[in-house]
């Protein structure tokens, strides 16, 4: 049985999306900027995709910028806003558990003279609001906090953050990295008071190499690439028509029934965590229980689960699961040999054994209960066997 | 400007009646190397040297890169080739050559002529003078020094005329295929590819065995070893890489022997398996990247204990090398960057905090007795189930 449970790394493209892109590449391959019919045809796809995304986010079409992916969206949002507002102040706030696309971008901004503060998180992996209140200052121009944490699946209180930030100073720009959360949670930037929002195509069953930055029309941004003036000069370069059409369709398909689909995933998550916990040596990360002993999955992202097999290194479990057809990720950035990067688990105060043995299991709308049952059975078989062999 | 290459070989030159075998092997290896290059070439053997004439356009850098990777090549001279011509025209061509290769030089030079075409109007001495004069007249600042010149311009008058003065060093050694076949124990580290390269440089054909331990080592670790073999195969030609799944054996040893002896006992089984595959593949020897004292399993005492299981000779070309010398070679042969990629190899997974450094053969043998119930079957299974792939350059 093959179970792909690494959907936070990337997802399978919807067949409809692949079909649409194929047609554009082979037939309607014109440059949307061209004046002739071929260009006009191509432009229709861009217009259509823009409409679909704007509708899903409940924003205006002119607030949609297409980028090369989540990373570029984050870069454009942070650098673009910091450069545009640097006269208003030089302080930026983000959190300790952001994706490297954020952390390394603010590091760059630090080297350019900006001051950056990193918010602490609690043991559930949720940003501490008091810390935010304490760190806001007259110099603050930009706050960036992710919607859904990519390692443990904790949901950040973006609505409260937006309120605190805007109450303090309505001119502070609030950016949200929603790469993991989009299509899994209801995210409407205007209602949540989010100024900038990053989305990636390949996390939502769309193609790789395409992303979206929602930028509120009242926000000024400086471009970070220069060229032919496409997308109002904010993101230069020939439009990636197949990618744009692909993310547009994926977005429409993925947001058809977010409430229903997230309920289904929450049930699966609750089931899985409840069962996984019963396996010897397994602990659950980033999700706590209520007084009845049930995991409070609805306080977390529906699709991302993080467990640790204590005493067994994540790589060993990952490859052992792989031999059984189960694809997951090592659950903490530390475990995947990139010691420089942050680890959400570390910021949550996890001990070394928890970090070393962490596995991230991330579901998609194609994940079934049977698959999770298979994974549980596989874990029950593998853990006792491999626990016999540890470094002495 | 160059249309020909003169390929010099050193050590083969001293071989006696077998010399033609070595020369033929070198010609074969050069032809193989040139297959990867654009263009078509004609090779001709003359005593002590090989001439390579390009018949079409070719990529100069590519050809030099290839030729200087062939074991047995001592050096390659890029040659300007002229059709038969009168001495005046030849002198003019030599001046052109000089101006192009040595613009603004204040060095000393001499002209050295070999005239195998005895019908040529001037003899070698006369040609030396004629060409030398022309160069002195045309290149300001140049001086003649017939005893110890900086530059020796060689002029060979055969059916055509050849001019050369520069030599680009090759790797030396002997052509692959002249000295039997060896089985290299290839890990993902820095040392073993270098050891394989060094042995191959003596004309030995190389096969390799890699011990894979999933799930402890990943597909990426395996791919890394394939990539390393690919890098080495640039010099050695295609390599048969035998991939042996070692997990079961390793876990069995782990559970049944003292932990501080795990690595040494593991190494003994690796040698046994490597030797069995070596014999199957008709290799005459084993090659490892071991170097005295580098890790616990490479102390002299440990080496004695691992060596004891082998009946074939085990060659350890790096035995007295310091790490930095090994690194220098690995950089030269372009395996270093691949070697340092951070994937675990199967020797390090369960390594004890304090492994034995002075193992006692008697005790190790006694502890191996604890494995006798299953180990032979496991070893045979590992050998039977090995995956063999032929690794060569793309």
Task: Describe the protein.
The complex is a heterodimer of chains A (392) and B (394). Chain A has helices spanning 15-26, 37-57, 70-84, 100-111, 129-135, 158-168, 189-192, 241-254, 258-277, 314-323, 344-347, 352-356, 369-387; strands at residues 3-4, 64-67, 91-95, 115-119, 140-146, 173-177, 196-200, 211-215, 282-285, 304-309, 326-327, 329-330, 358-362. Chain A is of the alpha/beta class and 392 residues long. In chain A, helix 2 (37-57) packs parallel to helix 8. Chain A is globular, with a radius of gyration of 21 Å. Chain B is an alpha/beta fold. Chain B folds into 2 domains: 4-169, VC0802-like, CATH 3.30.2130.30; 181-391, Rossmann fold (3-Layer(aba) Sandwich), CATH 3.40.50. Chain B has 13 helices and 15 strands. Chain B is elongated. The mean pLDDT of chain B is 92. Chains A and B meet through helix 10 of A and helix 7 of B.
Tell me the layout of helices and strands:
The complex is a heterodimer of chains A (392) and B (394).
Chain A (H helix, E strand, L loop, with lengths): L2 E2 L10 H12 L10 H21 L6 E4 L2 H15 L6 E5 L4 H12 L3 E5 L9 H7 L4 E7 L11 H11 L4 E5 L11 H4 L3 E5 L10 E5 L25 H14 L3 H20 L4 E4 L18 E6 L4 H10 L2 E2 L1 E2 L13 H4 L4 H5 L1 E5 L6 H19 L5
Parallel strand pairs in A: 1-11, 3-4, 3-5, 5-6, 6-7
Antiparallel strand pairs in A: 2-8, 7-8, 9-10, 10-13, 12-13
Chain B lengths: L3 E5 L10 H17 L5 E6 L2 E6 L5 H8 L7 E8 L4 H15 L6 E8 L8 H15 L4 E2 L6 E7 L3 E4 L3 E2 L11 E5 L5 H11 L3 E8 L6 H18 L2 E7 L1 H10 L5 H19 L4 E3 L12 H8 L6 E2 L7 H10 L3 H4 L21 H9 L5 H10 L2 E5 L3
